[in-house]
Amino acid sequence: MTKQEAKKRIEKLKAEINHYRYLYHVLDRTEISDSAQDSLKHELDILEKQYPDLVASDSPTQRVEGEPLKEFKKVRHAARQLSFYDAFSEQEMRDWESRLRKILDKKGSAQVLDYVCELKIDGLHVVLTYKKGVFIQAATRGDGRIGEDVTANVKTIEAVPLHLSEPVDIICEGEVFMSKEVFSALNKKLKEEKKPLLANTRNAAAGAIRQLDPKVAASRKLDLYIYKIDAASFALPKEQSGELEKLKSLGFKVNKNYHYCRDLEEVFQYYERWQKLRDSENFWFDGIVVKVNNHHTQEILGYVGKGPRFVIAYKFAAEEATTRVLDIKVQIGRTGALTPVAILEPVRIAGSIVSRASLHNEDEIKRLGLKIG
To answer: Any bridge partners for residue 289, and if so which?
Structure first.
């Protein structure tokens, strides 16, 4: 095989591998077996080793590369990374909508308020940057203005496209998470090795992304959903639902459970449905994210404090579980204050393993009627 022939074959293999990645991660479809995909990657790896000058940064063989880092570099975000305000009841949601209507009325805008709802995934927020369709950087949220460069680790996630379907510039936001299945298997392995168990999937994902060795991050089998465009070299769709569809068409993995709602009543129906189904997915989520659908309306509403007015996180009711008090110990604070702490038989609540609970004071112990055992 000549070098020119090898170049053509490499490009074809890359296209095929990316196509099957898109089918699996974006469209949730499988057309070939894992072993067949592995054979394509293996052939690509052999050709690239024969012609190392043909290896590109967006090659599927380059997901795990480089030596362990000494530290993470700081990255200044092109767009400030904000947080969402929370709501915990239907009344708080109605109050939120009332505030939005008042702002729109004050600004003389007669915009209709409709919404897009998405599941609020319990993971690590990341910002991805692409130039001419090629993945070049991933960063953590950090303080909202400056994050850490975690490109090498995020690149190991198969759900992350290394090359988009269009040669566009784009900065987008997403959530890295660890599936329940991977989390359980990892904790089982840690238990066998007599190492401390991971408390929840969010901590597990964050810990994996902050590994200095990309090989360790790759071994954690993380996943990722993208849900927002911060900036792009193309005109953005006029609605949030269209933005999600655009992200999918570019090759990003978007959670398929988002839903358009004409009004708050439909938002409440979506909330109730997913609160009942919260254990049905292979990842943890602790509520829904409700966004005003129209982008022009979003611009009118603007931002306040730590986040956008046009988005709110509608959190699920706190989970409850029954366990046993193994012991009660007294904790001494920095000021000398004494706080009784219950040592519990470990129990899983909302994806986290809880083994301790503050009891505040002796009166609280008496009120609860707590006894060891």
So the answer is: 118, 313
3-state secondary structure of 254: coil
Q: How far apart are CA 317 and CA 87, in angstroms?
A: 10
CATH number of 83-315: 3.30.470.30
Neighbours of 207 (CB within 10 A): 16
Query: Check: CATH 3.40.50.2300 for 325-368?
Result: no
**Hey, what amino acid is at 339?**
T
Domain with CATH 3.30.470.30 in the chain: 83-315
pLDDT digits (tens, 9 = 90+) for 305-363: 889 999 999 999 866 667 777 787 777 776 777 777 778 777 666 556 677 777 666 66
CA-CA distance, 344 to 354, in Å (whole number)? 8
* CATH code 1.10.287.610 region(s) in the chain: 3-62
Q: How confident is the model at residue 295 (pLDDT cuts 50, 70, 90)?
A: very high
Give the other-Cβ count within 10 Å of 223's Cβ.
21
Confidence at residue 109, expressed as pLDDT on a 0 to 100 scale: 80
Reduce the DSSP state of residue 173 to 3 states and report it: strand
Determine which one of 3, 41, 107, 120 is catalytic. 120
Cβ-based neighbour number of residue 210 at 10 Å: 14
CATH code, residues 3-62 = 1.10.287.610
The Cα 111–Cα 303 span in angstroms is: 17
Local structure of 196: helix, strand or coil: coil
**What's the chain's average pLDDT?**
88
Domain with CATH 2.40.50.140 in the chain: 325-368
Residue 120 annotated to the active site: yes
Q: What is the pTM of this model?
A: 0.81
pLDDT tens for 246-287 read 999 999 999 999 999 999 999 999 999 999 999 999 999 999
